[in-house]
Amino acid sequence: MAYKLSPGVYLVTGALRGAILDTNSKKVYSINKSAVSIIQNGQKEDNYWKDLQKLGLAEVTDRYVDSTIPKDRGVAKLDFVWFEICTKKCNLQCIHCYSNSRPPKEDIHSETRETLTHLDWKSLIEEGFSLGCRKCQFIGGEPFEYKDKFGHSVLDLSEYALQVGWKFVELFTNLTLVKPLEIQCIKKLGLSIATTLYSNKEEIHDAVTRTPGSFKRTVENIKLLLDLGVSVRAEIVVTKINQHTIEETIEFRKGLGIKDGKVDLVRPSGRGSDIDTVPDLEYYLKYGLVTKPNFYADLQSICKSRSFNSCLKGKITITEFGDYLPCIFSRSIVLGNSRESRLSDLVNQSNVQSIWKNTKDDVLVCKDCEYRYCCDDCRALSYSSCGEKIGFKSAPFPNCTYNPYTGEWAQGVWNVDEKGDVFYNRKDFN
């Protein structure tokens, strides 16, 4: 009698252990090296196979069946665009700003490059649509700082995107500059809004934005938008200043009626790379680090993760200077410029496709982990966290505490030393 893993059940091997991914129940099982060998070699260990059968993981077979997760070898398509229409302009001065945005009057070292015109943006909107993309976000800096010489605003660009045919248009804004008539326009156009709440306490929120009164204006406009039925999500970024109010802020967000929004650690990009913005270890543990195998095996997700980067696939950022970036947080990875290459040409370039197809099989440490296809990834965070000493596509993920070479959890985090060598950092973790 021979056995095989049931349909929809897959084995993934790591350096020391393995994982059985059951996409039927979405459960993930950790197994030791002996169990991996039994499954890989089809060994006739009846008792073990019968245990797997009881869990619905195996069945009797008369022939070998490959249990490898299917891989898509096709070309990735453009799925989402960040239109960063104000890269450097913002009325706030948030301590963690990834793009170093600031009020124009205070930017004594302002960028001298020519910015894209309103017609340039309209052309890019048209081109993105022609490539089959239907979802976008207008972001900054602060997108409501955008005004061309004819007075066109972010709402004009948003309306044009909807006229062209885009189905989902979101504005990521701090909401402090939005006027009542603009809120009515947002409702009329059917736009979605994303914003950031730093704390339920006014003085702490304003300390993060370094702008007195910002909390009051943001919250007032959130309420006005929600009263009109506009979709609003609010991110919470954990920094040294607001770390002790995060739970209260989550409850405050719920009380406002906001259902969507993540809690995210400050990213080491722009002003966020300042050590003074970094929260204490206990808050890193609570809000950012993966400290136990809390995974699930969704078939669509794991198939995507085996073929493409789970986050970057199909995404492009276009800055106000026309630079193409793989992500708004990947400021140093410039893939091209809209004045030199069309968006349609960019998405088919080998370097762009290789980033979109950058799986955990390419990432140091992760490639030896049995959980690599059911775990998240952030190339921007990984690259900046290692000081860009290791390549963008191979930098280890810094928020994972698992050591696939020893099977340990929560004993350290993966760092890179001055020579560019990866090590499991136990000292700083404890």
TrEMBL record:
Segments forming domain Radical SAM core: 86-252
Superkingdom of this protein's organism: Bacteria
4Fe4S-binding SPASM domain segment(s): 312-370
Entries under Gene3D superfamilies matching the protein: Aldolase class I (3.20.20.70)
GO MF assignments: catalytic activity; iron-sulfur cluster binding; metal ion binding
Entry keyword set: Iron, Iron-sulfur, Metal-binding, S-adenosyl-L-methionine
Alphabetical list of Pfam families matching this protein: Radical_SAM, SPASM
Matching InterPro entries: 4Fe4S-binding_SPASM_dom, Aldolase_TIM, Radical_SAM_PqqE_MftC-like, rSAM, rSAM_sf
Protein name: Radical SAM protein
